[in-house]
Each structure stands twice: as C-alpha cells, then as structure tokens.
Amino acid sequence: xxxxxxxxxxxxxxxxxxxxxxxxxxxxxxxxxxxxxxxxxxxxxxxxxxxxxxxxxxxxxxxxxxxxxxxxxxxxxxxxxxxxxxxxxxxxxxxxxxxxxxxxxxxxxx
Amino acid sequence: xxxxxxxxxxxxxxxxxxxxxxxxxxxxxxxxxxxxxxxxxxxxxxxxxxxxxxxxxxxxxxxxxxxxxxxxxxxxxxxxxxxxxxxxxxxxxxxxxxxxxxxxxxxxxx
DNA sequence: AGTATCTATCGTAATATTGCAATAAATAAT
DNA sequence: ATTATTTATTGCAATATTACGATAGATACT
Lengths: 110, 110
Hints:
Radius of gyration of chain A: 17 Å
Strand content of chain A: 5-15%
Oligomer: homodimer
Helix content of chain A: 55-70%
C-alpha cells in the first residue's frame, strides 16, 4: 500500500504525471522562474532569493535535475544551474498535446 | 517541519504548483483522458477502466473536483463527471504562460 | 598546511499521499 | 419494505515528500 501503481497506466500517463510532480512545488516553480530570468543561478543565490535552508534548496535542485529539467555545471566551489532546453520543450509539448485533446474534442463548437 | 512553506512564494507560484500537483498522478491523468474521450464518465466505469479500487478512484475524483478541474452531477445513484471548461482553460493558460517565459527569454535566438 | 566558501548528502521529524477494506448514505428496482 | 446498485467517507497501513541541522567533500585563498 501507499505506492503508486504505475503498471496500471500507459507510459505517457506516467510521464505526464511524473513531470507534473517535478513542478508541483512552489519552490521548484520559483527556482525555474529564477533560472529563466537570470539565465542561470547558483544554489547560494536561491537560498537568499527564496527563504528556505540550503539543504532544502539543494534537494529541490536535485529533483529538478533528476526530472531532467535542469542541468548543473561545476564552477569552482559553485554549481551553475540552467534549464535543459530539450527536456523543457519536451515537457511543454507533452502538456500542450494533453491540453489539446480537450480542445479538439470539446472545444467551443461542441 | 514537513509542511510546504507557501508563505515564501507568490500566489502565482503556489497556484501553478497546486494545479500541477492535481495532475501529478497517472490515475488522475487517466481519469481526465477518459473524461475527455467519453465526454463524461461515472466512478464505476473508471473502476473497470483503471484497475484501482472503487474507494481509490473516488478519492482521486475528489482531488480533481477540489482542484476545480472536474464537476459532477448526480444522476440517480450514479454521479456523472465532466471537465470544468473554465478551470481547464485556466490551467492551460497558466501553464502556457509559464512555458512562454522561457521561450521569450531563451529561445533559439538567445 | 590551514582556513574559508559552497554544495551535496545523511539522518531525522513532521506531514502528505496512496491504496484499500469496511461501512455509510442515497436512490432504483422488486 | 426489502434488496440491489452506486458513490462517498472512515480508518488504517505503507510509502513519499518536505524541511532542516549537522556533516562531509571539494575547490579557492592565504
């Protein structure tokens, strides 16, 4: 009990859900928005920008990285994170397609 | 500890995260897709369609209803669920806007 | 070498989510 | 009235998420 039964669903359903989960936290939305605005960012910047502890920010960055939405390059003691364009656009397309199925089927003409 | 610190984030960030969470489960994606495909559905249909227990489906329907994405009308002993067009389009717009901020800032020309 | 700075990881506590059996509530059918 | 059918709710167990202090690891600076 308590564990999602992924085997019951299609690969697409699981993928949409998993990516939605990756952005299903305001801190991760804030991180992504900051990444987009500043074109990059480091863990330390985010700790100041957002009010969460360093360990917590690091954990959220890890989740975004594991989802493939961001990537980090080491710069001395720092790590410079940025959006992964391929995955970002993949997510965008996946969501657009998902929303489109409704527009196609149940649009204003229906 | 263990509770999301919503007060640290903007209303928009919290709203995007909350709606993402509503669709962050493959069963709820499957429910929404079935709702779109059949233009409506009842709890019992979904129990057969998806392999989860009736109580579990009912719980997922409740979460989607609480997020405002679906609405149910009572039909005898059954409840007929359907997509809430306003909220659905609101979610669509919110996500489109979110994804667009990246395209604007970091598109192919950047 | 020793110190400072920055990020990742570990361990832990609090809370949330997932799933289901059992049961309740409400209408339909006999 | 009784029984069947359908959905919602309750209670519980298992697992996942969120948050943070403490600590480890790695590079920069003196």
